[in-house]
Design a protein that fits this description.
alpha/beta, 2 domains, four-stranded antiparallel beta sheet, 20% helix, binds iron/sulfur cluster
Length: 415
């Protein structure tokens, strides 16, 4: 970059011949979600994770679902707050989340803040999850490998032309970076491929992705085919149909991928983990809700004792608690529809005290209670069962809260 020039990402620039980062610590309000939101199915199923997203991106995908924050030219500054590394670690501890997820925009663009915070978190026994398209050079990637435990790579296509045309990035450096992760056995790695209607859904792309994974990092690495919704510049195409996702997932399995999943779909029996020896259900999933149904404490199949690929299946830290004595000061409802299976509940201003949020699932009134600590921006509530029609929300304070419908997992809606 020349003096006074910004990079493509819009958050790094040259000031008097020195490279500067302008986004250190600037994040969208931090959220608590579940690990499945991040397309991670084989690590601590059901764990609640602290999700932290920054502004800017080194790519510009035509279908980006978080474009209002990933593309700074569209950013409204009222949607960001400042956090220090200590603030983030403190929030993780206060909210009972043992994993910090670097997500929403692409964390590559705030590398220094991620490193500083992840090191601090690691020192306190908190894991780090990095969800990225991985358009990054090898040297900074090696710095990340020292502190990141879980990588969720958001892969777009096995076509160089696709990357050039629809993301403004390049495929080759991404493949090189994925190979480096694949050669680091202590890391947990999963890949997801967004299936964009009319762009990469003809089956050839899925086959090529599966073949490349098997050849270069191993058939054991889980692959997720994720449905897309209309966003940013790609608003005319339809949402990815379920049949298309199932077809691509089957193709990947036929190629030899051991665990292929469907993402962004709320339906039973389509994205479970099945024992490869006896066919028993090990983890059942509905949307982003996971239930470890067929594993023992050593992650062996309860039926045939085969060791499963699920790491730490019963670690899940659950901040929901049943209660019968919650007295809400305000109450309202949200009903699910064809497009929405989850919401963000956001504090409208900085909270001075912890607030309690009671969720009653309709119609059966099963109740969960969440605690939202000061400085935490949002919590996510997802539909948990096919029979669930909506939720009744009670809040034990008069602080105003906002509701944001979620169109997909890892979608970060803004005002
Ligand atoms: S989809 Fe991901 S990589 Fe692409 S522009 Fe959005 S945040 Fe960046």
């Amino acid at each position: 970059m020349k003096p006074n020039q910004f990079g493509f990402c819009g958050v790094r620039g040259n000031v008097s011949n020195q490279q500067h980062t302008f986004n250190y610590g600037y994040a969208v309000p931090v959220t608590v979600e579940v690990i499945e939101t991040e397309a991670i199915y084989h690590f601590r199923p059901g764990s609640r994770v602290l999700c932290v997203g920054n502004i800017g991106c080194m790519l510009e995908c035509d279908f980006c679902q978080n474009w209002q924050t990933s593309q700074v030219k569209h950013l409204d500054r009222k949607n960001i707050r400042f956090y220090s590394p200590e603030d983030i670690v403190d929030l993780a501890i206060k909210n009972g989340t043992d994993i910090i997820s670097w997500t929403y925009n692409d964390p590559v663009v705030w590398h220094e803040f991620v490193l500083d915070t992840a090191r601090l978190a690691s020192g306190k026994g908190i894991k780090n999850l990095y969800k990225s398209s991985l358009y990054i050079e090898i040297e900074p990637l090696k710095e990340l490998i020292e502190v990141i435990d879980i990588f969720s790579v958001s892969f777009k296509s096995m076509s160089s032309e696709f990357y050039r045309k629809y993301t403004k990035g390049r495929l080759d450096p991404i493949l090189e970076a994925i190979k480096v992760l694949g050669a680091s056995p202590s890391l947990h790695l999963e890949l997801s491929q967004l299936v964009v209607t009319g762009l990469n859904d003809d089956g050839m792309d899925a086959k090529n992705t599966a073949r490349w994974i098997i050849r270069n990092i191993g058939s054991h690495v889980p692959l997720h085919f994720v449905g897309f919704h209309q966003a940013y510049k790609y608003t005319k195409a339809k949402r990815t149909p379920l049949n298309k996702l199932l077809e691509l997932s089957d193709l990947a399995i036929k190629e030899g991928i051991e665990y292929s999943y469907i993402g962004n779909v709320c339906k039973r029996n389509i994205s479970d983990t099945i024992c490869r020896t006896c066919g028993s259900k090990l983890v059942e999933r509905y949307g982003v809700t996971a239930n470890v149904a067929g594993l023992d404490g050593e992650s062996r199949c309860l039926n045939c004792s085969t060791k499963s690929p699920i790491r730490e299946p019963f670690y899940s830290v659950n901040m929901e608690a049943k209660t019968g004595s919650f007295e809400p000061l305000q109450e309202f409802s949200y009903m699910w529809d064809d497009n929405t299976n989850g919401i963000h509940i956001a504090s409208a201003s900085d909270l001075s005290d912890q607030i309690g949020i009671r969720i009653q699932r309709l119609p059966d009134c099963q109740t969960d209670v969440y605690r939202m600590s000061p400085n935490l921006g949002r919590i996510t509530v997802n539909k948990k069962a096919e029979s669930e029609l909506g939720i009744r929300i009670g809040v034990d304070s008069n602080d105003r809260v906002n509701i944001f419908p979620l169109l997909d997992r890892a979608h970060y809606p803004v005002e």
